[in-house]
Design brief:
single chain, 4 strands, Glutaredoxin, 2 domains, 7 helices, 4-stranded mixed sheet, alpha+beta, Glutathione S-transferase Yfyf (Class Pi), Chain A, domain 2
């Protein structure tokens, strides 16, 4: 049985949880990280020296880094669907997954921390404003990309849609205005309609 370590408040754990549910795989999830602890114990560090969540265990095999876990699960159980067989489509999907981690997440993360995990009296409006200024052009880029295709990597839902979907869920859950992005909004409506997003994209931010 697959075992997933990580709290559902983590965007990175949510990616893996959604993927497992898309694939219909049986798994056990154990809360870990922040208030739940576990991630700094010797036993956990032996499996994940990065001391973060998520961590996936499959027998004696362990894997950490959320997008790597999503790729592994998709390649193992959904070759040709979640994990494209065509190399150009596959690396298109890979590219968007990397962009989510290296660019979109870094831009939007500070506003999330300020709004959701920082007490109101300690919030720094300048940090939020800087994060908004960095993130909105990226969302406009996504909107333009999705004007030409229904899903991130083309005509079909793939692993690329999962990290981007988690990121958009987090950003749109912040108590702040956002510009009209009709193509991104239509895509996100289609994402939310997928049964596998239950218990992932319908959770409040925390």
């Amino acid at each position: 049985m697959l075992r997933l370590w990580g709290r559902t408040s983590s965007i990175n754990v949510r990616k893996v949880l959604w993927t497992l549910q898309e694939l219909g795989l049986p798994f056990e999830r154990i809360d870990a990280g922040l208030a739940y602890g576990h991630n700094h114990t010797p036993a956990y560090l032996a499996k994940n020296p990065n001391a973060l969540v998520p961590l996936l265990e499959e027998g004696d095999f362990t894997l950490w880094e959320s997008n790597a876990i999503v790729r592994y699960l998709a390649a193992s159980h959904a070759m040709g669907t979640l994990y494209p067989e065509d190399l150009r489509q596959r690396f298109d999907a890979e590219r968007w997954m990397d962009w989510q981690q290296t660019t979109l997440n870094r831009a939007g993360g500070p506003a999330f921390i300020q709004w959701i995990r920082t007490p109101a009296e300690q919030r720094q409006p300048a940090v939020i404003a800087q994060s908004v200024a960095a993130t909105e052009p990226l969302l406009q880029m996504l909107d333009a990309h999705l004007a030409k295709r229904p899903w991130m990597a083309g005509e079909h839902f793939t692993m690329a849609d999962i990290p981007i979907g988690c990121e958009v869920h987090r950003w749109w859950g912040l108590p702040q205005p956002r510009p009209a992005l009709p193509n991104l909004a239509s895509w996100y409506t289609a994402v939310q309609a997928r049964p596998a997003t239950r218990g992932v994209l319908d959770l409040p931010l925390s």
